[in-house]
Amino acid sequence: MIVQAGARLQIERPHIDAELPTPYVDWTELLESLLVAAADADELREGVSPQAAARVLVSAFFGTQHISDVLHGRTDVVDRWAESGELLFRAIRAIRAVRD
Q1: Rounded to whole angstroms, how far apart are CA atoms 65 and 80?
Q2: What is the pLDDT of residues 54-93, one digit of tens each?
Q3: Long-range CB contact pairs, 45-54, < 8 A, 24+
Q4: pLDDT at position 58, please?
Q5: What is the pLDDT of residues 17-59, one digit of tens each?
């Protein structure tokens, strides 16, 4: 529910007469820190930039939510994120971790 509220605030941002925090920054920083830890544990595919991967994952997550909302009233958001997440995490996970 919190993520949905944040996504809605972002969409309605131009119509809100209040100062709002810059969107997506905290999500990106959190994911980047997790991905740096994954890289330190050799769980991130060699050559994957934690910073770039964090930006792509945040974009995919919020894009998936937006498209699900527009096309299907969010009824398929869980399934669509499962698809996106599976593909993206498989792409950035270390090769040995994919086989496990």
Answers
A1: 8
A2: 999 999 999 998 899 899 999 999 999 999 999 999 999 9
A3: 45/91, 45/92, 45/93, 45/94, 45/95, 46/94, 48/92, 53/92, 54/28, 54/29
A4: 95
A5: 777 778 889 999 999 999 999 999 999 999 999 999 999 999 9
The residues with which 14 forms a beta bridge, in sequence order, are: none
DSSP 8-state symbol, 56? H
What is the b/e burial string over 45-67, where b = at least 16 CB atoms within 10 angstroms of the residue's CB?
beebebeebbbbbbeebbebbbe
Residue found by looking up tokens 């993520």 in the block: 3
What is the three-class DSSP state of 48? coil
Strand pairing partners for 44?
93
Please name which of 60, 34, 39 lies closest in space to residue 49, comparing C-alpha atoms. Answer: 39
> What's this model's pTM, rounded to 2 decimal places?
0.79
